[in-house]
Specification:
Layout lengths: L3 H11 L11 E5 L4 H12 L3 E6 L18 E5 L13 E4 L6 H6 L1 H22 L2 E4 L1 E2 L26 H21 L2 E7 L2 E2 L12 H10 L4 E4 L5 E3 L1 E2 H13 L7 E4 L4 E3 H12 L5 E4 L14 H7 L7 H14 L8
Parallel strand pairs: 1-2, 1-4, 2-3, 4-5, 5-7, 6-7, 7-12, 8-11, 9-14
Antiparallel strand pairs: 10-13
Helix pairs in contact: 1-7, 4-5, 6-8, 6-10
The structure holds nicotinamide-adenine-dinucleotide (NAD).
């Protein structure tokens, strides 16, 4: 069964997204066992779509989709998206598969590049064969260590092409270029959200670097030191999962979004130190804070300019940082956390 916190939060999505745009549609979700993908599956099934997930479970978790197994309109295919072949027909493909956390992609740089390059080509071919709409989960990391903040889509980015993050950043940049080419050469119906840090229930909490929000919550709840990389003055902008999912779904249902690359994120910028302090306050634990060397190429500031998303589909964030963080802490408390592991 889906847990209460998540099912209550669906109302936030339902109030903005039109279910009719998804009812009865055959939708393929790659990476559907992951954080964002599993939320999409829940919402799509709630809207009456038929959902097939392709996931190799490399970073995804069965517990995110266990409650959907055995339901009539849901199917899981355990496969690498790079090699997945099917004769089934889909009207919408949400290509979410990827290695999203720095810990994870730096340990698996080749698979990370392949998933973005070969996996995206495979999904573009499937979409072409099916005449399907393809949405690809890109990232704020295509901007690298951005010099313009808040960052608009028109900014080209400052990315180290051979640094420790390049497998992720350049992989996503290649995928964006590939999909623009499919749009131009074959008229493929693509939409490319550049997702900024999203958080909420089901965000993975393991890993020593990356996914700061869930890591800090877990560290605080288990009375371990909160590990900050650098001086904590670097910023991120945290978008609650229901706002992210709403943004993605509005992009799918909008005709005007065809061929567009659009930032999806919250533009309330916070320092990592502010985040740690807030989490300590909320969890009421007395964890200390420890500082560690800043990893190479870690972006100093990250904050989206969301004007394009607002104008294109009328999206506005619904959830404040305080509310979303409270909700996330509550969810993690109910999950009886264990310790942080690499
Ligand atoms: N969460 C964020 O804040 C964020 C920010 C920017 C971009 N994104 C992008 O959104 C997508 C989803 O991110 P998430 O946070 O849900 O991550 P996640 O790790 O929770 O989910 C990714 C899913 O993709 C699957 N996967 C990875 N490689 C695969 C492959 N080759 N074949 C099949 N399945 C594969 C994993 O098993 C996992 O279930 C990713 O593409 C990520 O790059 C996420």
């Amino acid at each position: 069964m889906m847990d209460n916190i998540i099912s209550q939060d669906f109302d936030k999505i339902k109030s903005t997204v039109k279910p009719e745009a998804f009812a009865g549609k055959k939708v393929l979700v790659t990476g559907g066992a992951g954080f964002i993908g599993s939320w999409l599956c829940d919402v799509l099934l709630g809207f009456g779509s038929e959902v097939t997930v392709v996931d190799d479970l490399s970073t995804g978790r069965m517990k995110n989709i266990d409650h959907l197994m055995g339901t009539s309109k849901f199917k899981l295919i355990k496969s690498d998206v790079c090699r997945f072949k099917t004769e089934d027909k889909f009207e919408v493909i949400l290509h979410m598969a990827g290695h999203a956390s720095p810990d994870e992609y730096q340990q698996h740089p080749i698979e990370t590049l392949q998933t973005s390059a070969l996996g995206t080509e495979n999904m573009a071919e499937l979409a072409r064969k099916n005449d399907a709409l393809l949405l690809f989960a890109s990232t704020s990391e295509v901007y690298g260590d951005a010099e313009i903040v808040p960052t608009p889509e028109s900014y080209w980015g400052k990315v180290n092409p051979i640094g420790p993050r390049s497998c992720y950043d350049e992989g996503k940049r290649f995928a964006e270029a590939l999909l623009m080419a499919y749009g131009k050469q074959y008229g493929l119906n693509v939409r490319v959200p550049r997702i900024f840090n999203s958080y909420g229930p089901r965000l993975r909490e393991d890993g020593l670097y990356g996914r700061a929000m869930s890591r800090f919550i877990l560290q605080a709840q288990t009375n371990q030191p909160i590990t900050i990389y650098g001086d904590g003055k670097q910023t991120r902008s945290f978008c609650y999962i229901t706002d992210t999912v709403t943004g993605l779904m509005l992009l799918v249902q909008s005709r005007e979004a065809k061929g567009e690359v659009v930032n999806v994120g919250n533009s309330q910028e916070k320092t990592i130190l502010e985040l740690a302090t807030k989490i300590k306050e909320l969890t009421k634990f007395k964890s200390s804070v420890t500082f560690h060397p800043l990893p190479k190429d870690d972006p100093k500031r990250r904050c989206p300019d969301t004007n394009k998303l607002e104008k294109l589909v009328g999206w506005k964030p619904n959830v404040s940082f305080e509310w979303g963080l409270n909700r996330t802490v509550e969810w993690f408390s109910q999950k009886k956390p264990s310790t942080v592991t690499a």
